[in-house]
Structures are given as C-alpha cells and as structure tokens.
Amino acid sequence: MRIVLAAIASLMLTCSAFAEDPVPEVEYDNELRGSFAYAGTYYLKGQVGYVWTDIDGVTFEQGGSTTTFDSADVDDTWTLGAGVGYHFTELLRGELMLNYFGDSDFIGSTTGGCSGVLISPCVSSDVSSWDAYQIMASLYVDMVGWSFGAGGGTVTPFVGGGIGGTYVKWDNLSNTNCEEANPSNCDGPYYHEGGDDWRTTYQVTIGAAYDFSCRFVGEVSYQYSWIDGGYMFGEVAGGGPGWDDGLDTQQLNMGLRFYPGRECYVPPIIFKG
C-alpha cells in the first residue's frame, strides 16, 4: 500500500511541474522574409490579350491630287507576347517585349468618279487586312505602398509606359467601284499591292500583379497604344498609292512572370517562452 501511495504522489508532483512551465510562443522572423523582395531580380514573361483597334483614316492619291477615304474601319484582333524584365528597385522595373498581332480585317469606301461604262458618281468598296510584329521597351512603377497581402498572395498595382516599333504588314487591297444610283453596275475589282513598314509606337499601361508564389507572378493590365501611320497600298489604274494615318489599340492583357533566379525560402520559426 505504501508503494502505491508513493507512486501516486510522485505522479502528482511531476504533473504540477509541467503545469508551471509556460507554453512556447510561435513567431516568424520578419527580418528574414527576403524571398519576397524583388530588387535585383529578373523574370521571363508571357502574355495573351484581346485588342480593340481603331484606324485614324486613310489618305491616297487620285488623279494627281490627295484625298481621304469617306469611311475606314478595322476589326478587333488578339495579341500574343513574350519577353524579359528586370527589377531595378522594389518600385521600378524595366521590360522588353516582343508581341504579335493577329489578322484584323479592314473595310473602307470612297465617293467619286467611275471609269469605263459607269456613270458618275460611284461608291467604292475597299477591303484588306493587316497583322503586325512589335518590339516594346517599357518602364513600370510597382505601387508597393498600395499592396495588400504578404508574401505569396500579395496584390500590387502598377503603372507604366513605353516606346518601340511596330512592323505593320497590309494585305493586298481589293477595290470595287459601283454606281451610286445602281449598285449592281460595278467595275473592278482592282487589286492594289499591300504595303509594309516599321512605325514608331508608344504605350501606357495600368494593371495589377498577384504573387502566386515566390517564383510565379500573374498580372492583368489595360494598355493603350499609338502606332504611327505608314504605307498601306500601291497604285493601280490611276488610284493610289495610299497611307493609313495611324492605328490606335486598346488591349486587355493577361500575363505570367517567372523568376528563375530568385531564392525562395520560408522564414524560420522562433519559439519564445
């Protein structure tokens, strides 16, 4: 009996000692969260986008004088891009992108005299399409002061702008002239050789980035671009050459950045108490 009482007393003393020990606090060392710092890091980027496109007009030569299309319109298109970027600081980064713009149909018309057996005046129907390659160098400011979240899961707004060049290639222009009073009475079509050239391009962007993880960052952005005018089509039967007066694009882009050289680690856990 004495042995049993001694064992119970010993167990009670041990439990009492454990009860007096404080429960350790779990704390992350915030000074070592360097895996989510961007300064000095580079990234690879891919993006896709939808493009709303406007043409500023078309100018052409006719009978020794210069005139403009009565109407000119281009369809929406899509874009696909790839490039590389570098964070100079936590706030400022640069980016070099190569983009491709898919085919965008063009339709326009003019009013004027007709050739052959047609009676003036006549209305023309002019049909073509264009696609383009673009090189764009841009600077962006990441508004980290407006970020919310921490580490993976952070959302950071950004703004920026850039300058570059766009190689615009026009397909052949099909031109058909029909009598205004009798649209079934037409001549043509005449085919004007399409033009191609490099144009200076400017862009401004606003968007937001989301840190999926240390090495992967997604982004959504709105971009407005101005593409200078250039050579559009050649001369046929006294009509031409012609030039478009410039293209304006509005893009809604979705992109993904990959940081291959970034060191990723979880901040150490410190037990206190």
CATH architecture: Beta Barrel
Q: Give the averaged pLDDT, no decimals.
A: 86
- What is the helix fraction of residues, given as a range? under 10%
- CATH fold name, please? Porin
Number of DSSP E strands: 18
In CATH, what is the class?
Answer: Mainly Beta
Major sheet summary line: 8 strands, antiparallel, barrel
Envelope shape: elongated
Strand content: over 45%
pLDDT under 50 segments (min length 5)?
1-9, 15-20, 28-34
Number of folding domains? 1
**Termini gap:** 40 Å
Strand order of the largest sheet: 2-6-7-9-10-13-14-17
Q: Number of DSSP helices?
A: 1
Give an account of the 3D structure.
The protein is mostly beta strands. It has a single domain (24-272), classed as Porin (Beta Barrel). It has 1 helix and 18 strands. The chain has one helix spanning 2-20, and strands at 25-28, 42-55, 58-62, 65-68, 71-74, 77-87, 92-109, 111-112, 122-142, 155-170, 173-179, 186-192, 196-211, 216-227, 230-233, 239-244, 247-258, 269-272. The strands form 3 sheets. An 8-stranded antiparallel β-barrel has the order 2-6-7-9-10-13-14-17. It has a 4-stranded antiparallel beta sheet with strand order 4-3-16-15, with no helix packed on it. A two-stranded antiparallel ribbon has the order 1-18. The longest helix is centred in the N-terminal third of the chain and has 19 residues, at 2-20. The radius of gyration is 33 Å and the shape is elongated. It starts with a helix and ends with a strand.
